[in-house]
Amino acid sequence: MATKTIYVCTNCHEKHIAWSGKCPSCGSWNSLEEMEVEKKPQKAKSDNLNLITNRTKKLKEVNIDSSTRIITGIEEFDRTIGGGLVRDSVSILTARPGVGKSTLLLELADQLAKKGIKIMYIAGEESESQIKQRALRIMDDISENIYIISTNSMDIALSEMEKIDPQVVFLDSIQTVYLSEYTQRAGSPTQTIECANAFVNACKNPMKPKAGIMIGHMTKQDTLAGLMTLEHLVDTVMYLEGESDTPLRVLRTTKNRFGYTGEIGLFSMSEEGLKQVTNPSEYFLTSRDKPVEGSALSVIKEGSRILTVEVESLVSQSFTPYPIRIGDSIKKDQLNTLISILEQRAGINLYDKNVILKTTGGLRLNEQSVNLSIMMSIVSSVLKVGISPKTVFIAEVGLTGELKRVPQIENRIAELDRMGFEKVYIAKGSRNTKGLKNIQVIEFDNINQVIKDLF
After folding, report:
1. CA-based torsion, 350, 354, 359, 365: positive or negative
2. How far is CA 260 from the centre of its chain?
3. Helices in 204-357 by DSSP H: which ranges?
4. For an engineered disulfide with 403, which of 147, 215, 277, 427 has Cβ 3.0 to 4.6 Å away?
5. Considering the chain, what is the average pLDDT of its residues?
6. Average pLDDT, stretch 37-59?
C-alpha cells in the first residue's frame, strides 16, 4: 500500500502537508510531528458507473431548467451577474490586493443574511477575528445566519459545508487551501485545480445545491492567477477593478453562463465599505458652466449600460528629446496611434509636446468609440480653446483620419438626448436622425472637418 508523509500538531491534532516551526492552526511552536499514512486508492471510473442517473436523450425532449436566482439586494452586483446568484452556480472574483474583494463578500453576506439565507465564509488568508473587525465596520448588526471558519484545509472546509449546509458559500481564497490527498503545497497548480474541483462539486450537489463564490489571486499582468482550467471550471468570472488612490470600483464580468458578458457594476470605496454608485454622472462628468480647454465628452457602452464619460488632456512643451506620453485610461500604444493620426492627417504638431490623458473618475476606456473625443480633447488643449460641456463626440477614427461608425449609435444618441445634451459629432451615414427632441446630430467624413467646424 502506498504511503505519504503528513505532519500532525501534538497540541490541536491538525494535519498539515508541510512542516513548519509554528502550527498554522493553533500557533504553538515545535509541535508538528512527522507521520506516515496510507494513501486512499482512487476509485476506478467503472466503479462510479452505477452513480450515473442521466441517460442520453434527444435534445428536443430536454426540459429547460429555469434556475431560480438569489437576489442579493445589492443592485450593482445583481446587474453584473445577470440578475442574482444562481443557486447551484460557482463564481470566481479576482482583483489587485487592497481593492476590496473581501469587503464585497462581507457586504453580500450581510445583505443575504438579512433575508434569512444561511451564509458560510471560509477564510484561508485571515483569522476569524480579523474578519470580524472588518464586519463590525461594515455591518450595522452581525446576523446569526453568517458562519465563518478560518482554515487552510479544504478537507475541513468541505466537512463543515456538509455539516452546516449553507445556501451561499464564500471561499477566500482558492490559492490558500489544500487537500491532504495531494502532497503539493497550497497555491500550486495541482492543489488549486483539485480544490476548485472539490468546491464546484460540493456546490453543484443536486441534493444540496449551493451558490459559491471563490476569490482568486491576480497576477502582475492583471489577469486571474493559475491555469486557464480554473476559469473553465466556474460559471462566472468577475474582475473588481480600481486604484487604491481613487474611490471608484468597477465590477466586471468576463464570463457568465447565466447572463451577458461584459456587464459592470459601479461602487465607491469608503470607510464604511463599498457603496453603490447609482448616479454615474457624479463620477464621470465634471459639472461646469463654461468650456474648459482640454476636456471632451463621449459615450461608452458597458454591457447593457450606456455611460457618458469625460476625457481630459494636458498638452505641454517638452524640453527633452523624448516627449512624455501618459494615458492612465487607455493603452499607451493606442494613445500614440491617435497622436500620430493627428500629426499626419490633421497637421497638429505634437512631436515636441508632452501629452497626458485621463478620464474623470478613473474609468478605463475599452471601446474605440472614444477615439474622436480623445483627439478633440488633445486639439482643444493645443489650441487653448474650450469645448462646450453640452457637446459630445462618438466615433472611431481610422489611420486615414476618416470617422468610422460605432455599434448601437442610436441608443447612445437617444440617451444623450434624454440627458439634455445639445450637439453630438458622429460619422456620416451612421443613423437616421429623426425623432430627437433636443440634440443636434452633426455628421462628418473625417477628423479635419470636425476640427474645422468646432474650432
Report:
1. positive
2. 14
3. 229-233, 281-284, 332-346
4. 427
5. 88
6. 57
The two beta strands, 273-276 and 264-270, are antiparallel
Helices and strands of the chain, counted as H and E runs? 11, 23
Tell me what pLDDT residue 7 has: 82
Query: Residue 10 corresponds to which amino acid?
Result: T
Give the CA angle between residues 412, 417, 423 to the nearest 5°.
90
Q: How many CB atoms lie within 10 A of CB 141?
A: 9
Across the range 200-204, mean pLDDT stands at 94
CATH class, range 69-277: alpha beta
pLDDT at 290 over 50: yes
Q: Per CATH, is 282-454 categorized as 3.40.50.920?
A: no
Identify the residue whose cell numbers are 493645443: 382
In 268-347, where does DSSP find H-type helix?
A: 281-284, 332-346
**pLDDT band at residue 118, thresholds of 50, 70 and 90?**
very high
CA–CA separation, 195 vs 214, rounded Å?
11
Compute the Cα dihedral for 219, 221, 222, 228 and give only its sign. Answer: negative
How confident is the model over 149-187, as pLDDT tens digits? Answer: 999 999 999 999 999 999 999 999 899 999 998 988 999
Is-contact 297 308, C-beta < 8 A?
yes
| Cα 164 off chain centre by | 30
Write down the domain spans for the chain: 3-40, 69-277, 282-454
CA neighbor of 416 nearest in space, from 454, 390, 386: 390
Between CA 50 and CA 443 the distance in angstroms is 67
**Count of other CB atoms within 10 angstroms of residue 133:** 11
Answer with the residue of higher pLDDT: 117 or 362.
117
Locate 206 and state its grid cell.
443536486
Dump pLDDT digits (tens) for 50-80.
444 557 888 888 776 655 789 999 999 999 9
Q: How many CA atoms lie within 13 A of 146 on its CB side?
A: 22
Of 350, 352, 328, the residue nearest 337 (C-alpha): 350
Side chain identity at residue 164, one-letter code: I
- Comparing CA positions, the residue from 374, 308, 383 lying closest to residue 353 is 383
DSSP character string of 299-314: EEEETTEEEEEEEEEE
Q: State the Cα–Cα distance between residues 120 and 218, nearest whole angstrom.
A: 23
pLDDT at 121 over 50: yes
Q: Comparing 76-80, 205-209, 282-286, which segment has the lowest mean pLDDT? A: 282-286
